[in-house]
């Protein structure tokens, strides 16, 4: 029995019941694939169901405000995915009459859609012969065939795409692609996979050579940057506060936050520093909300965060009631503070 047939047989017996598995609708497949990039299925499922409820069609998503899209995405991370999702929905509705491209060649042109996502949509929705290569597939192929090329190198990416294409099950590409990804997620897991019950264990190179824990190979990550975040939570006599929208191309673009002072500060220096970001605010009292820094870890940076409560006498001109803060899309770091405060 071939490698691909064993994957198909395993999938038929072990596949999870997931909401996007009941459809070949390209809009819903696209939605699920974008959400599951760098996100575990357990976390992504509830977000998928929420988006499907609020935006049942691509027209609903295209007509929504970016603020609503970001609010529903809140907590899922990598917010550029949500912005690209919204941009692409509007593009398809405006320029393609709401019809999804039905080939890999056209799908990969969409903003936020790369090789993997285009291959997944093309194969699952349109039965096109395209091999998918995601983190799970890299792991299965690297272990089974004993490939030690780094999966995040140019050479490795090209090699594994070619290998995946050569071994795919062309007559049932829809189930095969979903099957090999599921196999990597459940059976050929990143850590401590149970190789004793694996249907591929009689011919897996990594198992034979004791390389399961060493494959796949990945080039070292870039150095993690440390940043000091001091959020200034202004509170006026009416219990209102201030929010500002993040701009630029950095993290959390277009999300809202409390005014931010990004440098080291303590109880002695905060009085001299806060005016850098709040020049018109005169604080009568400043207190530190959290003594120990909250360390918020992102892929390439760690944010050492403190929240400072600034009491002011005057009524804030653009003040927002704390009860209204839930309407604004904010980073999960801010959302957690609001719940606590």
UniProtKB/TrEMBL annotation:
Record's catalysed reaction(s): Hydrolyzes free adenine bases from 7,8-dihydro-8-oxoguanine:adenine mismatched double-stranded DNA, leaving an apurinic site
Names of the cofactor(s): [4Fe-4S] cluster
Originating species: Cellulophaga fucicola
GO biological process, alphabetically ordered: base-excision repair; mismatch repair
Role, per record: Adenine glycosylase active on G-A mispairs. MutY also corrects error-prone DNA synthesis past GO lesions which are due to the oxidatively damaged form of guanine: 7,8-dihydro-8-oxoguanine (8-oxo-dGTP).
Protein name as it appears in the record: Adenine DNA glycosylase
Pfam name, any one: HhH-GPD
Cofactor binding, note field: Binds 1 [4Fe-4S] cluster.
Residue span, HhH-GPD domain: 35-186
Keyword entries, A-Z: 4Fe-4S, DNA damage, DNA repair, Glycosidase, Hydrolase, Iron, Iron-sulfur, Metal-binding
InterPro entries: A/G_AdeGlyc_MutY, DNA_glycosylase, HhH-GPD_domain, HhH_base_excis_C, HhH_motif, MIG/MutY, MutY_C, NUDIX_hydrolase-like_dom_sf
Entry-linked Gene3D superfamilies: Helix-hairpin-Helix base-excision DNA repair enzymes (C-terminal), Hypothetical protein, domain 2, Nucleoside Triphosphate Pyrophosphohydrolase
Similarity annotation: Belongs to the Nth/MutY family.
GO molecular function: 4 iron, 4 sulfur cluster binding; 8-oxo-7,8-dihydroguanine DNA N-glycosylase activity; adenine/guanine mispair binding; metal ion binding; oxidized purine DNA binding; purine-specific mismatch base pair DNA N-glycosylase activity
EC number: 3.2.2.31
